[in-house]
Amino acid sequence: MSRLQAENLYKVFGRRPGEAVRKLQGGADREELRADGTTAAVIDASFSVEPGQIFVVMGLSGSGKSTLLRMLNGLLEPTSGRVLFDGQDVTALSPKDLRDVRAKKISMVFQHFALFPHRSVLENAAYGLEVQGVPRAEREERAHEALEMAGLKGWEKSWPDELSGGMQQRVGLARALATDADVLLMDESFSALDPLIRRDMQDQLLELQKTLKKTIVFITHDLNEAMRLGDSIAVMRDGRIVQLGTAEDILVTPANEYVASFTQDVDRSRVLTAGAVMAEPHTAIGGLDDAGRELRTPEDVLDAAPAKVGADTPIIELFTPCSTSGVPVAVTDAKGSLIGVVPRARLLAVLGEPMEPAVPAPVPDAQAATANDADQANEGTENVKKVSAGA
Ligand SMILES: Nc1ncnc2c1ncn2[C@@H]1O[C@H](COP(=O)(O)OP(=O)(O)O)[C@@H](O)[C@H]1O
Ligand SMILES: [Mg+2]
C-alpha cells in the first residue's frame, strides 16, 4: 500500500471555492479565476508516495507547492479531493485524530535547522523526541544514533557554538530525522543554505535516509536538488502537476517546453544513466576494435569495450573509458549479456539537449493498454497509478 496518496486534490482560496473547482473541472484556467479574485493554488493533483521513498515536488515560487504539502498533513483542508495516509482518509479524520497524526506520524520539518544555544548537541538532537514525550533514556539513545549517522559522534556534549555552521546544520537535520514520525514533510528545507552546506545537507539526508528509511515529501524550487534527492519528482506549474516521473524521465522526455526549459541547467552527466543513453548493441557490430579488427558478434564487442557497466551507471563514469578507446562502452545486464552500447559521440551529444530515447520503450500490447486507460479514466486515478507503476 502507498504510504501517502493524493487524489484529485484542489485548493482554492477566495470566494465560492466549490464553484471555482467546478469551473476548473469544466476547463477554466487559473487566470480566469484570478480575475474574480480567486486563487486556484492547487489544481487536480494526484500522486502516490511509496514507503521509504523521497518524493520531490519541484516548481517556481507561487506554483502551489506549500499549499499541496499542507494538505498532506491536514493543516489545510482540500477544497476537493482526498489525502490517504496508509489508506486512511486524512480529510475525514476528527480534529483530535488529525492532531494525533500530525504529532506522531507526519512531521513537518522546519525550514531552519537552528539549534538552541543553551542546550548541548545531544539535547538539541533529542529535542524532537522530547516534544513527542519519548522518555529521556530512549530519546538520548536515539539522538546518539542519529548524531553518529550524521558524522557527529564525539560532539554530543559540545555546545552548538563550538561547531562549524555546517555541523550545526547537520545536528538540526539529525534532530528532524530522529523523530517517531514515519513521514517527513520538508518545505524548501535547504533553500536558505549556502551552496556548499546545502550540498552537504543533501548528501547527509541521502545517507541518513539509507538507514532511517523515512517516507519524505521534499519541496524545492531547484531542479538540481530535486534530481539529486528525488526517487520520484512532481513538477508543478501554476497549481498543476505538469510532469510526474523520475529524474531521468524528466531529463530525457520532458513533458513540455516548460519542463524542458528547466532542465537546461541540470548537470546531465550525473542524472542520465548508461541505460538511458545507450544505443542498440547491433550498432557496434561491423565497427573496429582498437587494433583494427572487425567486431562481428556481441562477444567481440564485450571483449573490446573499454568498460562494461550496468544500466544504472551515471554517464559521468563513462567519460574516462570513452576517452581511452574508439570502441563503445558496453552496457550489460545482471548476467553480463550485452544490452546496449554507448559510443563516445553519443555521450557528447546527450550532454547538449533533451533527446529521444535511443532504445524506444517497448510498446505494450495495444488492446491491454486501451482497456487499462479506460479503467483509469473511469476511476479518475490515472496519475496515482502511473506513479505506482513506476515506483
Ligand atoms: N492562505 C492563502 N490565502 C490566499 N492565497 C494563498 C494562501 N496561501 C497561498 N496562496 C496563494 O496560492 C498560490 C500558491 O502558493 P504556495 O502554495 O505558497 O506556492 P509555493 O509554495 O509554490 O511558492 C500563490 O498564488 C499564493 O499567493
Ligand atoms: Mg512555498
From TrEMBL:
Region (Disordered): 359-391
SUPFAM superfamilies: P-loop containing nucleoside triphosphate hydrolases
Gene3D superfamilies: P-loop containing nucleotide triphosphate hydrolases (3.40.50.300)
Transport among keywords: yes
PROSITE patterns linked to this entry: ABC_TRANSPORTER_1 (PS00211), ABC_TRANSPORTER_2 (PS50893)
Example of a GO MF term: ATP binding
InterPro entries, per the entry: AAA+_ATPase, ABC_osmolyte_uptake_ATP-bind, ABC_transporter-like_ATP-bd, ABC_transporter-like_CS, Gly-betaine_transp_ATP-bd, P-loop_NTPase
Superkingdom of the organism of origin: Bacteria
Residue spans of biased composition, Low complexity class: 364-378
Sorted UniProt keywords: ATP-binding, Nucleotide-binding, Transport
Xref: SMART domains: AAA (SM00382)
Pfam families registered for this protein in UniProt: ABC_tran (PF00005)
Residue ranges constituting the ABC transporter domain according to the UniProt record: 4-263
Stored NCBIfam families: proV
Family (UniProt): Belongs to the ABC transporter superfamily.
PANTHER family: GLYCINE BETAINE/PROLINE BETAINE TRANSPORT SYSTEM ATP-BINDING PROTEIN PROV (PTHR43869), GLYCINE BETAINE_PROLINE BETAINE TRANSPORT SYSTEM ATP-BINDING PROTEIN PROV (PTHR43869:SF1)
Protein name: Glycine betaine/L-proline ABC transporter ATP-binding protein
Organism: Streptomyces cremeus
Lineage of the species this protein comes from: Bacteria, Bacillati, Actinomycetota, Actinomycetes, Kitasatosporales
